[in-house]
Design brief:
With 471 residues, this protein is mostly helical. It folds into 4 domains: 90 residues, no CATH class; 133 residues, Ankyrin repeat-containing domain (Serine Threonine Protein Phosphatase 5, Tetratricopeptide repeat, Alpha Horseshoe); 116 residues, Ankyrin repeat-containing domain (Serine Threonine Protein Phosphatase 5, Tetratricopeptide repeat); 63 residues, no CATH class. It has 26 helices and 2 strands. The protein has a two-stranded parallel ribbon with strand order 1-2. The longest helix has 19 residues. The radius of gyration is 31 Å and the shape is elongated.
């Protein structure tokens, strides 16, 4: 009986050694472990062709470095408690035997092969996230390989370069956008990722998100629609509308959004300016045409407006509220006419109406990013305040027009001018304003908590209480 127990104990010991021989515990105990061949994205087979595209980093990813549960095919023979204990010991063992640089290199391979739990363990264990392999950082690779959970964990770490330029000039935001990783896109924007950045092919994050819809079985419009709302400045809407996938029924909402983007026809602007320079009118005739131009703009009679402009209508005439043709072209949107008027020599792009508002302010009210950009290039003053004390930037923020706000901030608008000092962050709390909030903070906005409407309501309540006490 005693001999039988001894033989059972010996067999159990051999089985345990066999079980842990392929894992990290077995490696530490000297049982060894034969490296395995794996393919990225969870693929099987491990052919030479597949592995040639993903060259292994020597000594950083093999059975000895893999979780014990996945490396040991005989794991079912061990007690459940022992397997759980071995798996829990993996991260601690790695931290003890590897430097941050080693863990950083291991992180690349775990990202490639979809080892999410292991990637997160390496990040928590202090992996060096600044290491570059083949011109890529771990954040870029996580976005490029569609590892959303890993990318989110890396982006939250301090010192990570959010706008790192990877292969062909692409940024992590571009990689996340083309793969439709909306949660990652939102976090990257909150960290200050540049929405206006372009790669070596002159493609932006928005354009890549639209182009790569073709490669998805079911087009997910959430990412491109969010980028549009978050302030992506669309310089080439016709290019996006020319993508075959955009003209299919599943992309109807995206097509509608792209068609609603205002576009300045620079060809018409040049033609109109040429016609105008060849016309010569008497002052009285020009003023008469100018007054007609004011009325045609208000009723959106664009054909008549362009004719009057080309024939030499006076551009400094004003209506009853002291608004010029340029201001009205921004208020009653005619973006091509606004650009044409702003291009005429001698036209004051900073003229104000009876409320102290400038054409730039009206362009922000009407959410006309191309006109905002054009007026800024023509020398529009970004920090003028109207009679209410508001700047163009505050108007864009209050109206939740992210693209206009980002253009003004990038152009150097004072983020603490006028009533923006101090900035009330409750005005940019909505999800699509995340890029604006990050840009404001990056440019030194003085931010305080609270809600301006509530504070005004409290002040009025206090005044009423004071009056009641006096009486």
């Amino acid at each position: 009986m005693k001999g039988q127990k001894t033989r059972k104990a010996t067999k159990a010991t051999k089985a345990t050694k066999k079980q842990i021989g392929g894992g990290i515990v077995g490696s530490m105990l000297g049982f060894g472990g034969k490296p395995r061949t794996v393919t990225p994205n969870g693929g099987g087979g491990g052919s030479a062709a597949n592995n040639a595209n993903y060259p292994p980093l020597a000594g950083t990813f093999d059975v000895a470095a893999a979780p014990a549960a996945s490396a040991a095919p005989a794991a079912s023979a061990a007690p459940a408690a022992s397997a759980a204990a071995a798996a829990a010991a993996v991260p601690a063992a790695e931290v003890a035997i590897a430097t941050p640089a080693d863990r950083g290199r291991q992180l690349f391979e775990t990202i490639l092969y979809g080892e999410t739990a292991r990637s997160l363990a390496l990040i928590r264990g202090g992996a060096d996230l600044t290491i570059q392999i083949e011109g890529k950082t771990a954040l870029f690779e996580a976005c490029n390989q569609e590892r959303a959970e890993v990318a989110l964990a890396i982006a939250e770490r301090p010192g990570v370069e959010i706008d790192f330029r990877g292969p062909r000039g692409k940024t992590p935001l571009m990689a996340a956008s083309k793969n439709g990783l909306l949660p990652v896109v939102k976090v990257l924007l909150s960290k200050g990722a540049d929405l206006a950045a372009r790669d070596e092919y002159n493609s932006s994050a928005l354009e890549l998100s639209v182009e790569y819809l073709f490669y998805k079985d079911i087009p997910d419009l959430s990412t491109p629609l969010f980028l549009l709302q978050a302030g992506a400045f669309v310089e080439r809407p016709q290019y996006l509308l020319g993508q075959p996938i955009v003209n299919t029924p599943p992309c109807a909402a995206l097509k509608t959004a792209l068609e609603s983007i205002p576009v300045i026809n620079l060809g018409l602007v040049e033609a109109w300016l040429g016609d105008r320079s060849s016309s010569a009118l008497a002052p009285n005739e020009a003023i008469t045409l100018g007054k007609q131009l004011l009325e045609s703009i208000k009723i959106n009679w664009r054909t008549e407006s362009s004719r009057l402009f080309r024939e030499g209508a006076d551009l400094i005439v004003r209506d009853s509220q002291e608004r010029t043709p340029l201001a009205l072209a921004c208020l009653y949107p005619d973006v091509t006419l606004a650009a044409a008027i702003a291009s005429v020599p001698g036209v004051d792009v900073n003229t104000t109406d009876s409320a102290g508002s400038t054409p730039l302010m009206w362009a922000c009210v009407r959410n006309l990013p191309p006109v905002v950009d054009f007026l800024i290039r023509k020398g529009a003053d970004k920090d003028i305040t109207n009679r209410a004390g508001a700047t163009a930037l505050e108007i864009a923020i209050r109206m939740k027009h992210a693209a206009c706000a980002l253009l003004l901030i990038r152009a150097g608008a004072d983020v603490n001018a006028g009533r923006l000092r101090p900035l009330i962050l409750s005005e940019v709390y909505e999800p699509h304003m995340v890029a604006v909030e990050a840009a404001l903070k990056a440019h030194g906005a003085t931010a305080v908590g609270g809600n301006r409407r509530k504070s005004r309501k409290n002040k009025r309540s206090q005044k009423r209480q004071q009056k009641t006490r006096r009486h």
